[in-house]
Write a structure and sequence with these properties.
Distance between the termini: 37 Å
Shape: globular
Order of helices and strands: HHHHHHHHHEEEEEEHHHHHEEEE
Number of strands: 10
Structural class: alpha+beta
Radius of gyration: 20 Å
Strand order of the largest sheet: 2-1-5-6
Largest sheet: 4 strands, antiparallel
Strand content: 5-15%
Number of domains: 1
Amino acid sequence: MQKDFHYYATYCAAFLAGYDHEDSLAIAYSAQFVDDCSRSVLRRLKAPLNVASTQLNLELMEITTDILGIQDITRIWASFHFLPRDLYAQKEGCGKLYMDKYRLICGPNGELVKDTVTLAKKKSLQSVGIAMHVVADTWAHRNFAGTPSLVINNTDAHFFEILPDGTERKIKFRHSLSAPDDPENGLYTGSIYQSAENSIMNLGHGRAGHLPDYSFCRYKYLPAWNEYREMYKDNPSDYWNAFRQLIYAMKFLRGEYDEFHTDTYENKAVEGFEDEIRAILNKRQTESGSCADWKAFGEKLSGKEIPDYNENTYQDEYITANKDEKSDTFLGKFFEGTLAQKSMVTSRIFESGNLLAGYSVDPETGKLIRQMVKGGLKR
């Protein structure tokens, strides 16, 4: 997902969940800032580098994909953008290295979704926003994994969009970053094919570019991990579920529900708005047009102006704060939330016997989980 959903649609979901205008803005900003909190930004802020929730293309190009590099990448991308659906998935006849990657495939309504939302309970608005980013991405990024892998994330020439009239059109991927996506002609920018299993070009949905991030898109393709059986993806339906799940999750976080359940969606709050929301989701447009539509819908809901997203909004506050006051700033609270989320997910991955995200700090005790032993963990 992109700014249209993470910022503007998340604002709408927060407001429909019962948050007021200012709190909805804080949640929406935090949800979008997950995509901007890179080490390059953190260096400029003189903030701890281990709170990064994304990696810029230039940062990724400088990382070597040895085991330490892969672990660094996986800690970030699996924690925030490609939350694994089932860390204990079974598949016969596969070795451990393959299964470690297979079990990192992203998807909605896994146990880690519940863990992510519950982790934000009684925490800051920033933590709420972070959780909403992660949950939303499980719908857009399903079937891809947050670790470099050709066998999991590659796409091939068999990639078709299903148009609104039901006809199929072959999608063409090009590799010029300066060329904008052209939905009307089925042209999208994706990463260059690299045969190396661990090439950074094979991270997440890079091979498919931003295609999975467009709410209007319905497509089918042949992922290798699915034994080259055709797989169909219906983004308008998935994004509709994502939006209602965000509202439900935030109602839980506000205390309206005692427990969070996966595969549960809020319907009452969207009564009277379904046609309008679905129209936005189905409209064939790139990010800027979708941002404008979600913004207009949000302003209609609250009667308040939604400022355009600006990644620098809270940076001066953090930079100028005294050392002992930084944790109380907006970004200080955001950094606390990203560290908690990353620690939780990395711990769960490690506890499953999977070392692709490296060793972890126990999010409850702060102690390093040092090694696995049969039947449990040794700290």
